[in-house]
Amino acid sequence: MHLGLDEPRECQYNQICTHNSSSPLETPHLSKKRKVKRKWQVFPGRNKFYCDGRIMMAKQTGVFYLTMVLILVTSGLFFTFDCPFLASNLTPAIPAIGGVLFFFVMGMLLRASFSDPGVLPRATPEEAADVERQIDAANGASGPGYRPPPRTREVVINGQTVKLKYCFTCKIFRPPRASHCSLCDNCVERFDHHCPWVGNCVGRRNYRFFYLFILSLSFLTIFIFAFVITHVILRSNRTGFLSALKDSPASVLEVVVCFFSVWSIVGLSGFHTYLISSNQTTNEDIKGSWSSKKGKDNYNPYSHGNILTNCCAALCGPLPPSLIDRRGFVETDAPQPVAQSNGTNTCPTTQLQSHMAATTPLLHAQPVLLGGGPILQPKPSVPGPCSGLGPSQPSLPSSIPGLSCGGEVLALHDSESHCHHHIHHQHFISPEETPCAAHLGHHVPLYDPASQDSLHEDSVRGLVKLSSV
After folding, report:
1. Which residue among the candidates 17, 184, 195, 419 is catalytic per the annotation?
2. Distance between CA atoms of 192 and 188, rounded to whole angstroms?
3. What's the Cα-to-Cα distance from 200 to each of 116, 119, 274, rounded to whole Å?
4. Which of 243, 265, 464, 451 is nearest to 353 (CA)?
5. Is 347 assigned a catalytic role?
6. pTM, full prediction
């Protein structure tokens, strides 16, 4: 850039922003309007979140609402049409006991439905790359017809060998007893099954609430069914069977609902009582993981050998904390390298500002966003945060003075930027050697463009550009 003025001009070096989003230093009015996101808003699974991430459910929740309606309608009819007659003719304890069972059932249902079942966090890109390197190193070199073995690892638990399978979605080796739920798209710790009736997976963190829900629901269903029949019998003794049905038509609906649901609910409660007593999961029982058919030496390594101890471990043990931190904040302003479209990485904004301030005395406190000049990339062999360069980028000699960025040398090059005061058509190396300071007696070394022709072809955009005030 040629300046057509004769008076001395003070040269100013300004930073070029390499990030997609504006930094707070450049646009303070925009940074205040930036909306902070929580981790549940960018959660990779298929779950639904309510109440700012406090409630976590599966994506398909229609059957859960059906469960709520059946419990509420059946219990509401019982308390409205049956309990007044039973309380006046038998005992007031009947509606009291029914109320306690109802609230306990609803509490366990909501706790099992709204809790984190034990979702395992997915691996970060760095962790996934490290696992891939370990797998490649363990498998060795692969030829054209080579098929890699299954990605498994083996651990020994109480003398029993357990295989850990690799999850290609979460990029982790799943812990023992964990499995990937295809409906929620998450790996769940101590995965039991996905229950549509509660609208959530059943795992390590909500299994006890699920078991207490179906167990208490069994008692509530039997309780309602028994006392509805008692109500109809007592009315039939007074006014006849048909008159009793006309006086309490809701009792017929309650008997039908309870009769067809009690068998499945009681059967499910008995099945999970067996699983708890043997310290198994539904997933392990269906697959036959600890069945004696697989071998005489095959046994369940998680069982404590005592039914009472297994039940206490499942129902009274400590509840592990959630591992996904779903209400945490997403760190969008963290200084991380930004991948460019040509495969190169640029320096973080905070690091670049600190290095520019240390080496450039003319850097203003509030840099202006400019475009134009090319970037001269450093040598790929030099370590540092700016070392992620493609193999085709040219290298600069270390003797060239310039700006330091993470232990690397960046040369400033702009074939079209000039200061008109003393020197024309010259290329500048660093802010201290600009010709604008020639009137102060500084020596101005020349930069030979003929020896660096390839720099014009491979540079993408400039970090620093010379401009006038």
Report:
1. 195
2. 9
3. 9, 11, 22
4. 464
5. no
6. 0.64
